[in-house]
Amino acid sequence: MFEFQQYLGFLLFLTILTMGFWLMFFLVGFVSYWVGGATWEAYKEKKAKQKEEEA
User: Membrane spanning segments where (predicted)?
Assistant: First the structure.
């Protein structure tokens, strides 16, 4: 039969793969939130500037 020591490389690979997946998942969510917020703020500033120029 196989011993635990023979699985260490495979377990290390799975650990790194899983950590990479969750890091990518977090970063995609964070970056999309950041870009969406920056876009929304730019839109609000542009709208306020137009309103200020009208008055």
Answer: 7-35
